[in-house]
Amino acid sequence: MATWERFKGALVRTRQALALSRRDGTVTYWEDALLSADLGFEQASTIAARVGRLSATAQLAALRHELVQLAGAGHAIDLTARPAVVVMVGVNGSGKTSTAGKLACRWGGEGRRVVMAAADTFRAAASDQLNVWAQAAGAELVAQKSGADPGAVAFDGLQRARARGADVLVVDTAGRLHTRQPLMDELEKVVRVLTRELGRAPDEVLLVLDGTMGQNAVAQAQEFCLRLPVTGLVVTKLDASARGGAVLAARHAVGRPVSLVGCGEQIEDLIDFVPDAYVDALLAGLTIA
Ligand SMILES: Nc1nc2c(ncn2[C@@H]2O[C@H](COP(=O)(O)OP(=O)(O)OP(=O)(O)O)[C@@H](O)[C@H]2O)c(=O)[nH]1
Ligand SMILES: [Mg+2]
Questions:
Q1: How far, in Å, CA of 153 to CA of 118, rounded?
Q2: Which of 19, 36, 101, 282 makes the best surface tag, with the fewest CB within 10 Å?
Protein backbone atom coordinates (compact mmCIF):
# COMPACT_ATOMS: atom_id res chain seq x y z
CA MET A 1 0.00 0.00 0.00
CA ALA A 2 1.28 3.49 -0.84
CA THR A 3 2.47 5.64 2.06
CA TRP A 4 -0.24 8.17 1.28
CA GLU A 5 -2.95 5.53 1.62
CA ARG A 6 -1.52 4.30 4.89
CA PHE A 7 -1.58 7.82 6.32
CA LYS A 8 -5.10 8.21 5.02
CA GLY A 9 -6.18 5.19 7.03
CA ALA A 10 -4.42 6.45 10.14
CA LEU A 11 -5.87 9.95 9.91
CA VAL A 12 -9.58 9.12 9.59
CA ARG A 13 -10.47 10.74 12.90
CA THR A 14 -8.32 13.79 12.42
CA ARG A 15 -9.90 14.39 9.01
CA GLN A 16 -13.31 14.25 10.66
CA ALA A 17 -12.14 16.88 13.14
CA LEU A 18 -10.99 19.13 10.30
CA ALA A 19 -14.22 18.82 8.34
CA LEU A 20 -16.38 20.69 10.80
CA SER A 21 -19.94 21.24 9.55
CA ARG A 22 -19.68 24.93 8.69
CA ARG A 23 -16.88 24.80 6.12
CA ASP A 24 -17.24 28.38 4.99
CA GLY A 25 -13.55 29.19 4.63
CA THR A 26 -13.59 32.12 7.06
CA VAL A 27 -10.65 32.77 9.35
CA THR A 28 -12.80 31.59 12.27
CA TYR A 29 -13.63 28.33 10.52
CA TRP A 30 -9.99 27.61 9.83
CA GLU A 31 -9.00 28.50 13.36
CA ASP A 32 -11.60 26.13 14.82
CA ALA A 33 -10.80 23.35 12.37
CA LEU A 34 -7.03 23.51 12.88
CA LEU A 35 -7.42 23.78 16.63
CA SER A 36 -9.68 20.75 16.72
CA ALA A 37 -7.02 18.78 14.83
CA ASP A 38 -4.70 19.95 17.63
CA LEU A 39 -2.28 21.98 15.65
CA GLY A 40 -1.74 24.26 18.64
CA PHE A 41 -3.10 27.76 19.20
CA GLU A 42 -0.27 29.76 17.71
CA GLN A 43 0.03 27.71 14.55
CA ALA A 44 -3.73 27.43 14.09
CA SER A 45 -4.18 31.22 14.36
CA THR A 46 -1.28 32.07 12.09
CA ILE A 47 -2.27 29.65 9.35
CA ALA A 48 -5.99 30.48 9.63
CA ALA A 49 -5.23 34.18 9.18
CA ARG A 50 -3.17 33.53 6.05
CA VAL A 51 -5.51 31.00 4.47
CA GLY A 52 -8.83 32.57 5.50
CA ARG A 53 -8.24 35.79 3.62
CA LEU A 54 -7.79 34.02 0.26
CA SER A 55 -10.53 33.16 -2.20
CA ALA A 56 -12.23 29.82 -1.58
CA THR A 57 -10.59 28.28 -4.63
CA ALA A 58 -7.08 29.21 -3.46
CA GLN A 59 -7.50 28.15 0.15
CA LEU A 60 -6.81 24.43 0.03
CA ALA A 61 -3.62 24.77 -2.00
CA ALA A 62 -2.40 27.49 0.37
CA LEU A 63 -3.25 25.39 3.41
CA ARG A 64 -1.41 22.43 1.94
CA HIS A 65 1.63 24.62 1.39
CA GLU A 66 1.52 25.94 4.98
CA LEU A 67 1.21 22.46 6.47
CA VAL A 68 3.99 20.97 4.37
CA GLN A 69 6.24 23.83 5.52
CA LEU A 70 5.28 23.17 9.10
CA ALA A 71 5.95 19.44 8.74
CA GLY A 72 9.56 20.12 7.72
CA ALA A 73 11.64 17.34 6.24
CA GLY A 74 11.20 13.72 7.28
CA HIS A 75 14.05 11.90 8.97
CA ALA A 76 15.31 8.50 7.88
CA ILE A 77 16.86 6.58 10.77
CA ASP A 78 20.62 6.52 10.46
CA LEU A 79 21.87 2.93 10.40
CA THR A 80 25.26 3.56 8.85
CA ALA A 81 27.33 2.84 11.98
CA ARG A 82 27.88 -0.78 13.02
CA PRO A 83 26.34 -1.28 15.38
CA ALA A 84 24.00 1.67 14.94
CA VAL A 85 22.66 2.53 18.39
CA VAL A 86 19.01 3.52 18.68
CA VAL A 87 17.58 4.59 22.07
CA MET A 88 13.84 4.86 22.69
CA VAL A 89 12.67 7.48 25.21
CA GLY A 90 9.33 8.95 26.27
CA VAL A 91 6.63 9.05 28.94
CA ASN A 92 4.83 5.95 30.26
CA GLY A 93 2.74 4.08 27.76
CA SER A 94 3.63 6.27 24.79
CA GLY A 95 4.62 3.25 22.68
CA LYS A 96 8.39 2.92 23.14
CA THR A 97 8.49 -0.86 23.48
CA SER A 98 6.04 -1.47 20.64
CA THR A 99 7.93 0.89 18.36
CA ALA A 100 11.26 -0.73 19.30
CA GLY A 101 9.69 -4.10 18.46
CA LYS A 102 8.21 -2.95 15.16
CA LEU A 103 11.57 -1.47 14.14
CA ALA A 104 13.45 -4.63 15.12
CA CYS A 105 11.01 -6.71 13.05
CA ARG A 106 11.47 -4.39 10.09
CA TRP A 107 15.26 -4.47 10.32
CA GLY A 108 15.36 -8.20 11.00
CA GLY A 109 13.23 -8.70 7.89
CA GLU A 110 15.79 -6.71 5.92
CA GLY A 111 18.44 -9.19 7.00
CA ARG A 112 20.04 -7.00 9.67
CA ARG A 113 21.31 -8.51 12.87
CA VAL A 114 19.56 -6.79 15.79
CA VAL A 115 20.27 -6.82 19.53
CA MET A 116 17.66 -5.40 21.92
CA ALA A 117 18.58 -4.14 25.38
CA ALA A 118 15.86 -4.08 28.04
CA ALA A 119 16.96 -0.97 29.91
CA ASP A 120 13.47 -0.68 31.34
CA THR A 121 14.35 -2.41 34.59
CA PHE A 122 11.67 -0.49 36.46
CA ARG A 123 8.60 -2.50 35.49
CA ALA A 124 8.88 -6.22 36.31
CA ALA A 125 7.20 -7.40 33.11
CA ALA A 126 9.01 -4.99 30.81
CA SER A 127 11.76 -7.34 29.66
CA ASP A 128 9.20 -10.12 29.03
CA GLN A 129 7.26 -7.73 26.81
CA LEU A 130 10.43 -6.80 24.94
CA ASN A 131 11.35 -10.47 24.67
CA VAL A 132 8.13 -11.21 22.78
CA TRP A 133 9.12 -8.58 20.23
CA ALA A 134 12.73 -9.79 20.11
CA GLN A 135 11.51 -13.29 19.28
CA ALA A 136 9.19 -12.01 16.55
CA ALA A 137 12.12 -10.04 15.11
CA GLY A 138 14.67 -12.84 15.40
CA ALA A 139 16.69 -10.46 17.58
CA GLU A 140 18.84 -11.23 20.60
CA LEU A 141 17.65 -9.82 23.94
CA VAL A 142 19.97 -8.48 26.62
CA ALA A 143 18.30 -8.11 30.02
CA GLN A 144 19.18 -8.01 33.70
CA LYS A 145 17.05 -8.51 36.74
CA SER A 146 14.35 -6.07 37.65
CA GLY A 147 15.72 -3.03 39.47
CA ALA A 148 19.17 -3.25 37.81
CA ASP A 149 20.88 -0.05 36.67
CA PRO A 150 19.53 0.82 33.20
CA GLY A 151 22.94 2.27 32.29
CA ALA A 152 24.51 -1.14 33.01
CA VAL A 153 21.97 -2.86 30.76
CA ALA A 154 22.69 -0.42 27.95
CA PHE A 155 26.41 -1.03 28.44
CA ASP A 156 25.89 -4.82 28.31
CA GLY A 157 23.74 -4.42 25.24
CA LEU A 158 26.48 -2.55 23.44
CA GLN A 159 29.13 -5.11 24.42
CA ARG A 160 26.89 -7.91 23.16
CA ALA A 161 26.05 -6.11 19.93
CA ARG A 162 29.75 -5.60 19.27
CA ALA A 163 30.63 -9.19 20.15
CA ARG A 164 27.95 -10.46 17.77
CA GLY A 165 28.89 -8.08 14.99
CA ALA A 166 25.30 -6.78 15.11
CA ASP A 167 24.05 -4.11 12.74
CA VAL A 168 21.74 -2.41 15.21
CA LEU A 169 21.38 -2.12 18.98
CA VAL A 170 17.93 -0.99 20.11
CA VAL A 171 17.76 0.22 23.72
CA ASP A 172 14.28 0.28 25.27
CA THR A 173 13.96 2.48 28.37
CA ALA A 174 11.38 2.86 31.11
CA GLY A 175 8.60 5.41 30.69
CA ARG A 176 8.88 8.46 32.87
CA LEU A 177 7.11 11.70 33.39
CA HIS A 178 9.20 14.51 32.04
CA THR A 179 8.64 16.31 35.35
CA ARG A 180 10.31 13.59 37.46
CA GLN A 181 13.87 14.77 37.88
CA PRO A 182 15.59 11.59 39.23
CA LEU A 183 14.15 9.53 36.40
CA MET A 184 15.25 12.04 33.81
CA ASP A 185 18.71 11.95 35.41
CA GLU A 186 18.72 8.17 35.02
CA LEU A 187 17.86 8.48 31.34
CA GLU A 188 20.64 11.00 30.85
CA LYS A 189 22.96 8.46 32.40
CA VAL A 190 21.94 5.78 29.88
CA VAL A 191 22.81 8.18 27.06
CA ARG A 192 26.04 9.21 28.81
CA VAL A 193 27.19 5.59 29.25
CA LEU A 194 26.53 4.85 25.58
CA THR A 195 28.22 8.07 24.47
CA ARG A 196 31.33 7.28 26.49
CA GLU A 197 31.55 3.75 25.11
CA LEU A 198 30.82 4.74 21.53
CA GLY A 199 32.96 7.87 21.50
CA ARG A 200 29.95 9.62 19.93
CA ALA A 201 26.32 10.22 20.84
CA PRO A 202 23.92 7.35 20.11
CA ASP A 203 23.08 7.41 16.42
CA GLU A 204 19.41 7.90 17.18
CA VAL A 205 17.55 8.98 20.29
CA LEU A 206 13.91 8.59 19.30
CA LEU A 207 11.38 10.45 21.42
CA VAL A 208 8.11 8.51 21.33
CA LEU A 209 5.00 10.66 21.82
CA ASP A 210 1.44 9.46 22.32
CA GLY A 211 -0.53 11.02 19.47
CA THR A 212 -3.77 10.94 21.46
CA MET A 213 -2.30 13.41 23.98
CA GLY A 214 -2.36 16.35 21.61
CA GLN A 215 -0.83 19.47 23.09
CA ASN A 216 0.31 17.63 26.24
CA ALA A 217 2.68 15.66 24.07
CA VAL A 218 4.15 18.94 22.90
CA ALA A 219 5.04 20.00 26.46
CA GLN A 220 6.65 16.59 27.07
CA ALA A 221 8.63 16.83 23.88
CA GLN A 222 10.09 20.17 24.89
CA GLU A 223 11.31 18.83 28.22
CA PHE A 224 12.88 15.67 26.78
CA CYS A 225 14.62 17.66 24.07
CA LEU A 226 16.14 19.99 26.66
CA ARG A 227 17.70 17.03 28.46
CA LEU A 228 18.62 14.57 25.73
CA PRO A 229 20.14 14.60 22.24
CA VAL A 230 16.83 13.68 20.60
CA THR A 231 17.35 13.03 16.89
CA GLY A 232 13.80 12.29 15.81
CA LEU A 233 10.19 12.09 16.95
CA VAL A 234 7.87 9.11 16.73
CA VAL A 235 4.17 9.92 17.09
CA THR A 236 2.11 6.82 17.92
CA LYS A 237 -1.60 5.92 18.06
CA LEU A 238 -2.65 8.20 15.22
CA ASP A 239 -5.23 5.55 14.40
CA ALA A 240 -6.86 6.21 17.78
CA SER A 241 -6.62 9.98 17.69
CA ALA A 242 -8.48 12.95 16.26
CA ARG A 243 -5.43 15.04 17.11
CA GLY A 244 -3.14 14.09 14.27
CA GLY A 245 -2.16 17.74 13.88
CA ALA A 246 -0.10 17.34 17.05
CA VAL A 247 2.55 15.72 14.87
CA LEU A 248 3.09 19.09 13.23
CA ALA A 249 2.76 21.02 16.49
CA ALA A 250 5.43 18.87 18.16
CA ARG A 251 7.78 19.21 15.22
CA HIS A 252 7.37 22.95 15.27
CA ALA A 253 7.77 23.26 19.04
CA VAL A 254 11.05 21.36 19.34
CA GLY A 255 12.55 21.74 15.88
CA ARG A 256 13.32 18.02 15.67
CA PRO A 257 12.18 16.08 12.63
CA VAL A 258 9.41 13.49 12.71
CA SER A 259 10.82 10.06 11.85
CA LEU A 260 7.92 7.68 12.19
CA VAL A 261 4.23 7.49 12.87
CA GLY A 262 2.52 4.60 14.68
CA CYS A 263 -0.87 3.60 13.30
CA GLY A 264 -1.85 0.46 15.20
CA GLU A 265 -0.65 -2.39 17.37
CA GLN A 266 0.55 -4.80 14.70
CA ILE A 267 4.13 -5.26 13.50
CA GLU A 268 3.49 -3.44 10.24
CA ASP A 269 1.71 -0.48 11.84
CA LEU A 270 4.63 1.92 11.62
CA ILE A 271 4.96 4.43 8.78
CA ASP A 272 8.02 6.43 7.78
CA PHE A 273 7.05 10.06 8.00
CA VAL A 274 6.78 11.58 4.53
CA PRO A 275 5.58 15.19 4.92
CA ASP A 276 3.76 15.54 1.58
CA ALA A 277 2.01 12.21 1.92
CA TYR A 278 1.00 13.02 5.48
CA VAL A 279 -0.45 16.43 4.58
CA ASP A 280 -2.24 15.08 1.49
CA ALA A 281 -3.82 12.37 3.62
CA LEU A 282 -4.81 14.93 6.24
CA LEU A 283 -6.58 17.10 3.67
CA ALA A 284 -8.02 14.30 1.50
CA GLY A 285 -11.61 15.00 0.54
CA LEU A 286 -11.75 18.33 2.38
CA THR A 287 -13.84 20.92 0.52
CA ILE A 288 -14.81 24.49 1.25
CA ALA A 289 -18.54 25.21 0.97
N1 LIG B 1 -3.70 1.92 18.54
C2 LIG B 1 -2.39 1.97 18.74
N3 LIG B 1 -1.87 1.47 19.87
C4 LIG B 1 -0.54 1.54 20.06
C5 LIG B 1 0.33 2.12 19.10
N6 LIG B 1 1.60 2.04 19.58
C7 LIG B 1 1.52 1.45 20.79
N8 LIG B 1 0.23 1.13 21.09
C9 LIG B 1 -0.29 0.50 22.31
O10 LIG B 1 -0.04 1.35 23.42
C11 LIG B 1 0.19 0.57 24.59
C12 LIG B 1 1.51 1.01 25.23
O13 LIG B 1 2.56 0.67 24.35
P14 LIG B 1 4.03 0.30 24.85
O15 LIG B 1 4.83 0.06 23.65
O16 LIG B 1 3.98 -0.73 25.89
O17 LIG B 1 4.41 1.70 25.50
P18 LIG B 1 5.72 2.06 26.35
O19 LIG B 1 6.05 3.46 26.01
O20 LIG B 1 6.76 1.04 26.14
O21 LIG B 1 5.13 1.96 27.83
P22 LIG B 1 5.98 1.90 29.21
O23 LIG B 1 7.06 0.91 29.03
O24 LIG B 1 4.96 1.51 30.24
O25 LIG B 1 6.46 3.30 29.43
C26 LIG B 1 0.20 -0.89 24.14
O27 LIG B 1 -1.07 -1.43 24.41
C28 LIG B 1 0.43 -0.79 22.64
O29 LIG B 1 -0.09 -1.88 21.95
C30 LIG B 1 -0.26 2.67 17.89
O31 LIG B 1 0.40 3.21 17.00
N32 LIG B 1 -1.61 2.55 17.78
MG1 LIG C 1 7.86 -0.09 27.48
A1: 7
A2: 19
Atom of ligand 1 nearest to the CA of 208: 19
Ligand that comes closest to the CA of residue 93: 1
283, part of any domain: no
Identify whether 280 is part of a domain.
no
Q: Can you give the pLDDT at residue 20?
A: 75
Q: What pLDDT score does 44 carry?
A: 94
Examine the domain organization and report whether 25 and 136 are in the same domain: no
User: How many whole angstroms separate alpha carbon 97 and alpha carbon 208?
Assistant: 10
pLDDT confidence of residue 275:
94
Cα 108 to Cα 90: distance, rounded to the nearest angstrom: 24
CB distance 232 to ligand 1 below 6 Å: no
Which of 249, 252, 270 minimizes the C-alpha distance to 261?
Answer: 270
pLDDT band at residue 123 using 50, 70 and 90 as cut-offs: confident
0.90 surpassed by pTM: yes
Would the CB of 244 count as within 6 Å of ligand 1?
no
From the CA of 208, how far away is ligand 1's center (Å)? 10
Assess whether pLDDT exceeds 80 at residue 1.
no
Instruction: Please say if the pLDDT value at position 18 is more than 90.
Output: no
